[in-house]
Design a protein that fits this description.
Shape of chain A: elongated
Number of strands of chain B: 0
Number of strands of chain A: 0
CATH architecture of chain A: Orthogonal Bundle
Order of helices and strands of chain A: HHHHHHHHHH
Largest interface: A-B, 50 and 67 residues
Helix content of chain B: over 70%
Structural class of chain B: mainly alpha
Largest sheet of chain A: none
Helix content of chain A: 55-70%
Number of helices of chain A: 10
Strand content of chain A: under 5%
Largest sheet of chain B: none
Order of helices and strands of chain B: HHHHHHHHHHHHHH
Oligomer: heterodimer
Chain lengths: 272, 306
């Protein structure tokens, strides 16, 4: 039930964002000072902002960018983490030490700081932010991959493959990767909402995109002064973000329950 | 000893990444700095500026000079303003430390009683409330809550003077917000760890001896909970750095965040490098310190994670 609600929320935002760009038919930057703060209607579905720009069109464009950046960051974290982690698992001790410390560094540095550094070097764009957030995710993924891969090495089937003369790449591809991939992707999926939130936070800081291009976070920053008089301007981007991130949490969160009996609870306990 | 070596190695890696990456990438801070000084970007001016920044030496020598400066406290000049980086960072640091440090302190102090109350009666009122609270903190973005809180407290209720008031008035709300956001996950971890301790045989023994559930938890589950809290505080510190930055901007606090954003916009690498190295040092120290305390308290690895 919870997953269904989550799926519905995420799908709604995704469809509205991708479809919205196509059907809204408004220029994102078309300033129309005659129709500032117009209410919702047939012409502007969610009304217009303080410059007469169509809110729905901006919201949809922001959603598309947020989703693309999130997907890219997650893909970079997965690919980079797998590469670095497997390299560490197969490499000789010195190279392993270097790879693991690099992963440690990426894992302990705040995501926002890594993203800011990458944005400073590559310039403001959703892609540089996605790259930064992806690199930040690479660290913890690589540490996890390395742990799972070294555990897989101890399995008899890997030993058997080694004895049969399979090379390191064959072992990595056919025997280690299938053991590593499911927990790693599950873990990463649990962090996807987190990535979207970080992207929105960076956009709020003004580091998400080239100025003027709409992002949910930058819309919240731009419209924050209108909280008094036109709360709808803040409400819509906030609602989009809440729906999307909350939906992802509901959709992906694993429902693990403690099965052991505790002496304290007098009813069944489930972890949150 | 190995822990110390490891920490130094991590910092060396960080310094290498921070120094080399921007230097290799395209984008020219010299042009931006010249615009800032209202000078024409003629080749002579660019060359003069590069000479001023001593950029015509090789990368290795620049790095060596930078690292020795960093360690000895000479952090160089801001490329944007030309003032010493230390002078740029100095007056802003107390704001950020007050908000971030105060926030995590608040969270660390409050999560113990709250988590205990929630664990005392699973599915009771305290448990439900803290759970709701942690879900809310996970989904509601801090910057949105910050905007709302700023509006409510200063414009609607007129309780705080957020922009013109004294430092305490300005810091109070951001500090509280950062604290509350850290409190939510920490409370759940403390609660889960207390509940996990409740499943242990030694706790059943304590109950059999005649202690009440609350007493038993208090006396026998304290140490594993402290260890789990210690393990949870270190990743929370990671969040604090980013969270403080966002909240500072929302409340227009003249902290580090503003400086960093300006420095990104003008590619002021000398400020950014010092900032990133500062954050890296903080993180490495926190992680190594927590690991050290943990190994002193309990040589076994922690089992009751969230």
């Amino acid at each position: 039930m919870r997953r269904l609600i989550g799926l519905f929320a995420v799908a709604a935002v995704a469809v509205l964002s991708t479809g919205g760009v196509l059907i809204a038919g408004h220029d994102l930057h078309a300033v129309d000072l005659a129709h500032r703060h117009a209410g919702p209607g047939a012409e502007h579905w969610l009304g217009t902002d303080h410059l007469g720009r169509d809110i729905f069109a901006r919201l949809a464009a922001g959603g598309g960018r947020a989703m693309a950046a999130t997907g890219l960051a997650a893909a970079i974290a997965l690919a980079g983490g797998l590469a670095l982690g497997l390299f560490a698992a197969f490499a000789p001790p010195a190279a392993r030490f270097l790879a693991l410390r690099t992963a440690d560094l990426a894992a302990i540095m705040p995501e926002l700081v890594i993203a800011i550094l990458v944005a400073a070097a590559l310039g403001f764009s959703p892609w540089s932010i996605a790259l930064g957030l992806g690199i930040a995710g690479t660290g913890s993924t690589a540490i996890m991959v390395h742990g799972l891969a070294t555990a897989a090495f101890r399995e008899p089937y890997v030993k058997a493959a080694e004895a049969l003369g399979t090379g390191p790449f064959g072992i990595a591809w056919r025997h280690v990767l299938p053991a590593v991939l499911p927990p790693v992707t599950t873990n990463l999926a649990g962090h996807v909402g987190h990535i979207t939130m970080n992207y929105a936070a960076l956009a709020f800081l003004g580091l998400g995109a080239d100025s003027g291009a709409p992002d949910w976070g930058s819309m919240l920053f731009e419209y924050r002064f209108f909280l008094f008089d036109h709360p709808a301007l803040v409400l819509w981007p906030a609602l989009a973000l809440l729906l999307f991130v909350g939906g992802l949490h509901c959709l992906i969160e694993p429902d693990s329950g403690s099965t052991r009996r505790s002496v304290l609870p007098f009813r069944k306990v489930s972890s949150p | 000893m190995t822990a110390l070596l490891r920490a130094v190695f991590l910092l060396w890696l960080a310094s290498l990444a921070v120094f080399v990456l921007p230097a290799l990438l395209p984008g020219n801070p010299a042009l931006l700095a010249l615009t800032e000084r209202n000078q024409a970007a003629t080749p002579e001016n660019v060359a003069a500026l590069k000479a001023e920044w001593r950029m015509e030496d090789g990368l290795a020598r620049q790095y060596a000079r930078w690292v020795t400066g960093l360690v000895s406290g000479d952090w160089g000049l801001s490329l944007r303003s030309g003032r010493p980086v230390a002078d740029e960072i100095g007056p802003r640091l107390p704001w950020s430390i007050a908000i971030g440090g105060g926030g995590i302190l608040l969270a660390a102090l409050l999560c113990l009683p709250l988590g205990f109350a929630a664990a005392r009666r699973p599915h009771g009122i305290a448990d439900r409330l803290t759970r709701l609270f942690s879900i809310a903190a996970q989904t509601a973005p801090s910057f949105l809550v910050a905007i709302l809180a700023a509006w409510l407290f200063s414009a609607q209720w007129r309780l705080l003077d957020l922009h013109t008031g004294g430092p305490i008035q300005r810091v109070a709300l951001p500090l509280l917000l950062v604290g509350i956001y850290s409190l939510a996950p920490l409370t759940r971890i403390v609660r889960n760890c207390f509940v996990a301790a409740g499943e242990q045989a030694y706790l059943r023994t304590a109950l059999a001896k005649g202690l009440g559930p609350g007493q038993a938890l208090h006396r026998h589950a304290g140490r594993p909970v402290m260890l789990a809290l210690l393990a949870a505080l270190t990743p929370q510190m990671t969040w604090i750095v980013g969270g403080t930055a966002v909240v500072e901007v929302a409340f227009a606090i003249p902290g580090l965040s503003q400086l960093v954003i300006e420095s990104v916009a003008t590619r002021d690498y000398s400020v950014l490098r010092v900032y990133v190295m500062g954050v890296a040092t903080l993180m490495v120290v926190v992680h190594s310190g927590a690991e050290l305390i943990r190994s002193r308290l309990d040589p076994r690895p922690v089992a009751c994670a969230a």
